[in-house]
Amino acid sequence: MSTLINPTHIYTAAGSYPVTLTVTSGSCVVNLTDTIVILPVGIDLPEGMSSLTLLPNPFKDDVTIEFELNGEREISLQINDVLGRVVKEFARDLKLATGKHTFKFTGDAPGAYMVIFHIDGVPFTQRVLKIK
Q1: What is the pTM of this model?
Q2: HEC string of 20-87?
């Protein structure tokens, strides 16, 4: 129980949580109970990709790009700077098998980079940030 004026709690996992608010004023006590539902936060992955991690993000030295394909797919993977210039091209129209695949990107200068996938011709972009 908290006696703070504005109590907070950070929920670290998805799920349903009962929450009770007790308001006391003099001899009057009111209890309000409700259930909050925390949904998982994520991104909609393109068809053919079952998982994607870009860690750490932001990064200092390098970022690991790991993804899992749920079938053999043709992929292209490149990194662009914020001006759209290609900084690194990992694959172009490469057939990859079902399973996990890992690439590492070191980045040039600090700043934002776009990780651009094409999976069976469909583009998908995520942002990573290199810091000093």
Answers
A1: 0.67
A2: EEEEEECCEEEEEEEEEEECCCCCCCCCCEEEEEEECCCECCCEEEEEEECCCEEEEEEEEECCCCEE
